Amino acid sequence: MPIYEYICQKCHNKSAVLVRSISEPFTPVCPNCDSQDMTRTLTSFSYHKSMSTVWEESGEPRKSSSPDYYKDPRNIGRWTEKQFKDYGLDVPPQIKEKIDAARDGELPESIKG
Fold first, then answer.
1. Which of 11, 24, 82, 102 fits a disulfide with 33 by CB distance 3.0 to 4.6 angstroms?
2. What residues contact 78, with CB distance under 8 A and at least 6 apart?
3. pLDDT tens, position by position, 24-55
4. Where do the domains of the chain lie?
5. What predicted TM-score, i.e. pTM, was given to this entire model?
6. CA–CA distance, 29 with 38 (Å, rounded to integer)
7. Going along the chain, which residue ranges are E strands?
8. Are 30 and 10 in contact (CB under 8 A)?
9. In 19-100, which ranges are E strands?
10. Can you tell me the distance from the alpha carbon of 104 to that of 85, in angstroms, rounded to the nearest whole number?
């Protein structure tokens, strides 16, 4: 059962329609204005990048990057992780937990207040 997207030519509302059978005739109806003057459009899609691709595109982690660098939560803690790696050490579990929590949106207690 495919889902098609249509644009209403009357009100320009974009809507997704589940088509139960592609072999039966189907006339989409706009859920906004009840018009049947609908045009099928291309559906957008998303592309998820791997962590290594995000890091390559973000550049080498630096201690003082631009504020935009940290708008992507995957970059939180990269500099710390890099420093441990450069010294041949594993990131301690308690630090790893804090970095992962920050990436998930949970701020450390010292920053919350």
1. 11
2. 55, 58, 61
3. 888 899 999 999 999 998 877 777 778 778 77
4. 3-41, 51-106
5. 0.41
6. 7
7. 3-8, 14-18, 38-41
8. yes
9. 38-41
10. 22
